[in-house]
Backbone:
């Protein structure tokens, strides 16, 4: 269940794209959107007068207020509740701390923001938040197709791990809320080894992972289509999503270890960097939210 959605913003066009996804989900789950702007003086260090320059501080505050005004307008237009705040400090840390102290269920961020003094949080900061925070993070790339209606097709990638199982649960919750079809794939990375026996074991593991996914989605009463693919996992995920017009991709942040690891973990980061679709990265919770 999603009750509180955090949208860090720097006022960029891609931050607005992220807000569109956040308000869509807020409508589906009757959730509140939290707009957050972080003033990071690191980006002002090269300006005359230094990072404590009153004029620089004022400019950043004004930019933050303008960015949050856009969040408020977007939420009002979408008919969802909102709250906004400006903080100072290291951007990824502030985002993660805000999320944990405000009972946030989902963080929605763009993957690239502005350049220079305006680039306060998007891009590499998104990856830092994913690593630091145990909450699901939905990333929206600059070249993602415009969001015109609700999600219709949701892709979830699985390798049979606990994180993949939690990603499936999340995909089911989302698809149920917006009445979407779930696409399930498991990728056999035959490039991991040159051993035919191990390749066979990986294929069998993929079959079990897909069988488990199909059972969970069918039990939830949703439509599902599945496929086992071969190749570089992040490329297979990216290409499938593009070819099938997928609106959202859901992956776990960590997969299986050693030779058993099919694709989750570092592959989720590669997928974020290369895919032209929104990617929701989930992590199996270490404890239940109070």
Residues:
């Amino acid at each position: 269940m999603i009750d509180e959605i955090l949208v860090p913003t720097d006022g960029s066009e891609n931050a607005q794209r992220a807000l569109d996804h956040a308000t869509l989900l807020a409508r589906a789950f009757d959730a509140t959107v939290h707009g957050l702007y972080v003033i990071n003086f690191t980006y002002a260090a090269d300006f005359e007068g230094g990072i404590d320059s009153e004029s620089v501080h004022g400019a950043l505050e004004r930019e933050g207020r303008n960015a949050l005004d856009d969040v408020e307008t977007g939420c009002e237009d979408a008919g969802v509740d909102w709250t906004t705040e400006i903080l100072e400090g290291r951007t990824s840390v502030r985002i993660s701390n805000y999320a944990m102290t405000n009972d946030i269920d989902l963080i929605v961020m763009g993957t690239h923001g502005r350049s220079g003094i305006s680039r306060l949080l998007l891009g590499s900061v998104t990856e830092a938040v994913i690593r630091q925070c145990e909450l699901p993070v939905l990333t929206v790339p600059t070249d993602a197709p415009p969001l015109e209606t609700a999600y219709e097709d949701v892709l979830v990638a699985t390798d049979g791990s606990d994180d993949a199982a939690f990603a499936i649960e999340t995909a089911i919750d989302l698809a149920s809320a917006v009445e979407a079809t779930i696409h399930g794939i498991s990728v056999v990375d035959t490039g991991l080894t040159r051993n035919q026996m191990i390749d066979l074991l990986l294929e069998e593991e993929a079959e079990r992972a897909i069988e488990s996914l199909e059972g969970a989605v069918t039990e939830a009463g949703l439509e599902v289509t599945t496929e086992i693919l071969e190749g570089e996992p992040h490329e297979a995920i990216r290409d499938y999503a593009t070819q099938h017009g997928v609106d959202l991709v859901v992956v776990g942040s960590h997969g299986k270890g050693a030779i058993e690891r099919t694709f989750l973990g570092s592959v989720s980061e590669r997928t974020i960097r290369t895919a032209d679709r929104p990617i929701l990265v989930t992590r199996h919770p270490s404890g239940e939210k109070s």
Remarks:
- Residues 160 and 209 are 5 Å apart (CA to CA).
- Helices lie at 13-29, 54-78, 91-101, 124-132, 162-178, 196-219, 233-243, 266-274.
- The beta strands are 4-8, 32-39, 81-88, 106-110, 137-140, 153-157, 181-188, 224-230, 248-252, 279-282.
